[in-house]
Amino acid sequence: MARKIEPVTPPNPAKAQALVKSVRNQIDKLDLQILKLINDRASAAGEVGKIKMENGEDIFSPAREEEVLANVLEAHSKYPNALDASTVRAVFREIMSGSRALQKLLKVTYLGPEYSYSHLAAIERFGQAVEFVPVGSITAVFEEVNRGHADFGVVPVENSTDGRIADTLDMFMRMPQMIICSEIRLQIHHNLMAKCEAKDIRRVYSKPQAISQCRNWLGKNTPHALLTEVSSTTTAAELAQREPGAAAVASRQAAVRYGLRILFEDIQDSADNETRFAVIGHQKTAKTGNDKTTLMFRIPHSPGSLADAIAVFKANKVNLAWIESFPSRIAKNEYIFFADFEGHIDDPKISKMLKAFHDECTEVTVLGSYPIAQISG
């Protein structure tokens, strides 16, 4: 028996257009509601800022901003088929940035130029509604903040592939009065970009750390290209734009800025390539209950002194998250140590631990207590 074929109903363009128009009208109404709520929120934030200024309090509050983001993301997780959490975080970051700018336009300096990873980290922390000031070195970032030419600075502390950033630790030794008030954990995505085809690449530019983090990939995929170190990934992108047969390892944003094609994405050798940045300034950060403290300390030059100092953390059940040594400028064959541990200096448990820790050291400087950052990017 032959199967009966049902007639196909032809599409009705007029009906489809009417439906699209109806949905778009709904979107327009929602946009106006969102706009009103954003401005109502900014007005309320302005009231808080006015009270802060009258009482001599700081406008930038990393603890409060982390609390806002945590509350929003927790509520967001309950929505099915919702926007990606990173999108929601970016939206609220910019809302807070714009609201903060109505109270005070912060000046933030970073290791430039634009679209370097330090710049991207600064945007991740402060949003776009600030005055960004690129400088040519980590030393210059510290100097600009120390002299009051900038409210805050963003400096790299360590990379998951290459380890510590020596220039940053050296500057903390030179300027121990500088306070870490926040941290940024940025997932680093390296891309190979050029104006030419991959087969025509004869030179690859990038900063030393980026080349190091992609060395295996570059050796396998661009074996005939000369790897050339420059001051920043953005400088690399600029050179790739101008020079025939040149490519750069840099961020996606740098490719857009200089009109380069991304030939290969995510070429870093480690999929978990991450850089941790510190936000430096002169203000202390209130505790959130999910905090980290950074110390700089010196110990007696005697057998077992480091083991005795480290034992204090275990004895007080404080989790030591990171430790790094650096040659001392005071005495030959001595070292300055840097350490991160979980907790805030205003916690009674941490205050007790630090008292015992001081007894084991010749010098201790608390560089700052601040909220533990979630990885982004």
Mind explaining what this structure looks like?
- With 377 residues, this protein is an alpha/beta fold.
- Among the domains are: 191-264, D-Maltodextrin-Binding Protein, domain 2, CATH 3.40.190.10; 284-376, ACT domain (Alpha-Beta Plaits), CATH 3.30.70.260.
- The chain is 42% helix and 25% strand.
- β1, α4 (117-126) and β2 form a beta-alpha-beta unit.
- The radius of gyration is 25 Å and the shape is globular.
- The mean pLDDT is 93.
What's the overall average pLDDT, rounded? Answer: 93
Secondary structure tally, helices: 12
Enter the CATH topology name of the domain at 284-376.
Answer: Alpha-Beta Plaits
Report the helical percentage.
40-55%
Topology pattern, helix = H, strand = E: HHHEHEHEEHEEEHHEHEHEEEHEEHEE
Low-confidence stretches: none
Number-wise, the strands total: 16
Termini separation comes to 61 Å
What is the radius of gyration? 25 Å
Q: Which CATH first-tier class of the domain at 284-376 would you pick? A: Alpha Beta
What structural category arises from helix and sheet content? alpha/beta
- What global shape is seen? globular
- Largest beta sheet, briefly? 7 strands, mixed
